[in-house]
Design brief:
Blueprint (H helix, E strand, L loop, with lengths): L2 E2 L2 E2 H8 L3 E5 H13 L6 E6 L6 H8 L4 E4 L2 H9 L7 E3 L6 H10 L2 E4 L2 H10 L5 E6 L21 E2 L3 H11 L3 E5 L9 H15 L7 E3 L17 H18 L5 E4 L3 H4 L3 E12 L4 E5 L8 H4 L6 E3 L7 E7 L7 E9 L6 E4 L21 E5 L2 E6 L4 H5 L9
Parallel strand pairs: 3-19, 4-5, 4-12, 5-6, 6-7, 7-8, 8-9, 8-10, 10-11, 11-12, 14-16
Antiparallel strand pairs: 1-2, 3-13, 13-14, 13-18, 15-18, 16-17, 19-20
Helix pairs in contact: 6-7, 8-9
């Protein structure tokens, strides 16, 4: 894997320097088509969860597919509007925000999702004529680990399924029109039975409100992070889920719209992160490859214990050796421990794969390091879609009052 759409990754490093994020537009389109084609329902709408990767060029690309957008902040919402998404194609699904942020979302005309009673009461009293979606917590443990499981009983997300009487009371008291029911159980879910189980719980809620027009089942589909790794079989899932959903719609004599919010599923495989080997350091126990990046650029291995495959693209046919790939941050920032790589020399370029989702978006200026640039390869051409930061960027929002 040394090229993308006929362009050498090493040539991209020569052009833009390292570290560098690179995204393959064709791969994003392929994953979107695969997802959409997996379902057989009369009304399906996919909303890209842009928290995974919200560069405006990526948003414009995904909009061109006919996809909608899922936003969790007013800033993401503004990016979506700038990218050309129509307000009616945007879902606003925040968590623990203020009334003021909801006010801004209402002014923008987007679809509103609410996940707590306090804000539901505020919305009902302030905007009595605007329909809303309600997020339900089904108390289902789903996800690769507890940090990315959001539908269990201890989660901060959603209104508990056991609080339905209070939910119904508030809706009746304020005469709120509920046009959607939303659920999201977590990320990296492999077993489709978890989705099916949560779905049946949620569809029981739908039955309580005649005004519901759509059901949003979030996302969380697992992608493979290594060769032969486990992943959600989206075709099998789509067929099974479509059958279940169609049967429900037929049984209640209502043609509901089915919504999903894939983020990682659409962009994870499309991205790679290219770093340069600064140092080869041998100790009595380990040989380290120290690279020109760290948890300030890609924190998932340190934050989630996430696995990202790493390959040496400068010497792909070199003799295999065991290395631990580490960063330049003054913390323990290990990208991969005891990895078999083609022999690495100082200056070699390593590729960290599956770097399209929750990688650049979780980067920072820790240690006052610059965030890297982003490049999109589209129809055989490379485009710079975010510049590398500079020291001016570090200083531009800092104030220097004369207090000494």
């Amino acid at each position: 894997m040394t090229q993308v759409q006929g362009i050498s990754y090493l040539d991209l490093v020569d052009k833009y320097d390292a570290p560098l994020y690179v995204y393959d537009a064709d791969n994003i389109k392929s994953m979107y088509d695969k997802f959409v084609n997996a379902f057989s329902v009369p009304k399906l709408k996919v909303h890209y969860a842009c928290k995974a990767l919200s560069n405006i060029s990526v948003l414009k690309l995904i909009k061109s597919f006919g996809c909608g957008l899922d936003c969790v902040s007013i800033q993401e919402l503004r990016l979506g509007l700038l990218a050309g998404f129509k307000p009616e194609d945007i879902l606003f699904t925040p968590n623990n925000i203020s009334e003021q942020e909801y006010d801004l979302a209402v002014q923008a005309g987007v679809n509103i999702n609410i996940d707590n009673f306090e804000m539901l009461e505020y919305f009902g009293s302030t905007y009595p004529n605007i329909p809303v979606c309600v997020r339900i917590n089904p108390h289902v443990m789903g996800g690769g680990n507890r940090k990315i499981s959001v539908g269990h009983i201890g989660s901060k997300f959603g209104i508990s399924i056991h609080q339905m009487p209070l939910l119904e009371k508030i809706i009746k008291t304020f005469d709120i029109k509920i046009n959607g029911i939303h659920v999201h159980t977590g990320s990296d879910i492999l077993d489709s039975d978890i989705f099916i189980h949560a779905s049946k719980v949620i569809l029981d809620v739908v039955d309580k409100f005649d005004s519901v027009e759509y059901v949003d089942f979030g996302s969380g589909f697992k992608v493979a992070y290594k060769q032969g790794g486990l992943q959600t079989d989206i075709e099998d899932f789509g067929q099974e889920f479509s059958n279940m959903f169609n049967e429900f719609c037929e049984s209640c004599n209502r043609q509901l719209e089915l919504k999903f919010e894939p983020g990682k599923y659409l962009v994870s495989h499309a991205g790679v992160f290219l770093v340069r080997a600064n140092v080869i350091k041998r100790t009595t126990a380990t040989t380290f490859v120290g690279v020109d990046s760290g948890l300030n650029h890609l924190i998932r291995p340190m934050f989630y214990d996430a696995y990202h495959d790493i390959i040496n693209i400068s010497n792909p046919n070199g003799k295999p050796k065991i290395y631990s790939v580490v960063g330049y941050i003054c913390e323990t920032d290990t990208f991969g421990e005891d990895r078999k790589l083609a022999e690495v020399s100082k200056g070699d370029i390593l590729m960290i794969k599956n770097a399209g989702a929750y990688c650049y978006m979780m980067s920072s200026n820790y240690n006052s390091r610059y965030r890297p640039p982003e490049v999109m390869v589209h129809q055989g051409k490379d485009y710079l879609i975010r510049e590398r930061e500079s020291f001016d960027n570090i200083m531009q929002l800092q104030c220097d009052p004369d207090f000494l």
